[in-house]
Design goal:
single chain; about 375 residues; mainly alpha
Length: about 375
């Protein structure tokens, strides 16, 4: 009877773990979607109503990291309360030195990416930079192939080509949606900054996945939050140095007084910007933990059209024919990728079933 219970316990544990992973994936996907759409919209709100500090905006992208202390504390208390007699005593900080150093390096790269992104957002309409940002999926796919041996399919290659063409279509129209009073030169600089930010973040996502794979520590969601905390700390520190050099801290009170929406709303915008971007980063590394860096990149790309539509509705931005073509190409690229992934998953499941059936059936030579 004891043996039967032991055999039944394993499938139950496996089922529970799978359910927990699916729940985590859905939760982090929601966080990522919220940050992908909300972060750029709030950041652009800061710029269009009189905000001019690029280092401040990049600082806000990760400055909300102290909020992570709340779920980390809850996780630690939960582990202490559920500790059994023979289990290892939970640690307040479980991250080892290798993981800390790797997270710090990724954090500095993230800080640089924050600056490139904020610079681009300050010069381009939301609907434009969101379409350009869609090219990050191409970079993510390439770096995922190089760093974590992600396999390409005809559908993923087609997706990369389509997203690249979409960015080129936007580049050909460099004057149609320029903000009032902005030169063509500044528009091109903004365009190049967003492409550079997309490329760098396309490198960061697979790099995080590589860190997960190379570390000898058992990766738990609590440890993922610690990684997020360290990454955002170093990214914020990087941007804070830029703010000090640029005298941004001294200018904030004056900029708040001159802000078009009023001083109080100025600080509301800053706080909400920090919160939205924290959702983004937590969701991004959470999806990598539950699935892969490529899926994280796909979810970001999928929510970009939502951001474009919201920008047109909320900020009355123009939506020319070139943007329509770029949007169609982007959606075509997403559908191509998803279709390819579904086919691959169906093929993997079919091969798994065949292998299982062959393992269960004895060879004909052994049958009496």
């Amino acid at each position: 009877m004891v043996e039967t219970d032991g055999r039944e316990e394993q499938p139950n544990q496996s089922s529970t773990m799978k359910t927990t992973k699916i729940f985590g994936l859905i939760t982090n996907s929601i966080f990522l979607g919220l940050g992908t759409s909300g972060g750029p919209l709030v950041m652009r709100l800061y710029f269009i109503h009189g905000g001019k500090r690029i280092w401040l905006s990049s600082f806000l992208e990760t400055a909300g990291f102290p909020v992570m202390l709340i779920p980390l504390s809850i996780s630690y208390i939960h582990q202490r309360c559920n500790k059994t007699t023979n289990s290892e005593k939970p640690k307040l900080i479980s991250m080892e030195l290798y993981l800390f150093l790797a997270s710090a390096i990724v954090g500095i790269l993230t800080g640089l990416d924050d600056y490139l992104y904020a610079y681009g957002v300050s010069l381009l309409p939301v609907s434009t930079f969101s379409l350009i940002q869609a090219s990050h999926l191409s970079f993510t796919a390439v770096f995922a192939f190089l760093l974590v041996k992600q396999k390409f399919t005809a559908y993923s290659v087609n997706s990369i080509v389509l997203l690249t063409i979409a960015a080129v279509v936007l580049a050909l129209r460099s004057s149609g949606d320029r903000p009032h009073g902005e030169s063509t030169g500044k528009y091109i600089v903004g365009f190049l900054m967003i492409v550079a930010a997309a490329a760098l973040y396309g490198f960061v996502l697979p790099l995080v996945e590589l860190v997960y794979k190379k570390t000898k520590q058992h990766i738990t969601y609590s440890l993922v939050m610690e990684i997020q905390f360290v990454m955002c700390f170093f990214a914020t520190f990087f941007c804070a140095i830029g703010m000090i050099i640029n005298n941004d801290f001294k200018v904030i009170p004056r900029e708040a007084r001159d802000y078009e929406l009023g001083e109080t709303k100025y600080y509301y915008v800053l706080v909400w910007s920090a919160m939205m971007w924290q959702f983004f980063f937590l969701g991004a590394i959470g999806v990598i933990f539950c699935a892969s860096s490529l899926l994280s990149g796909i979810i970001i790309a999928v929510f970009l059209p939502v951001t474009e539509v919201l920008a047109v509705i909320l900020y009355k931005e123009n939506f020319e024919a070139e943007k329509g073509v770029a949007l169609v190409l982007s959606l075509w690229g997403f559908v191509s990728y998803f279709y390819g992934e579904i086919k691959q998953e169906w093929k993997r499941n079919k091969n798994h079933r065949l292998n299982t059936e062959q393992a269960q059936c004895p060879p004909l030579s052994l049958i009496p």
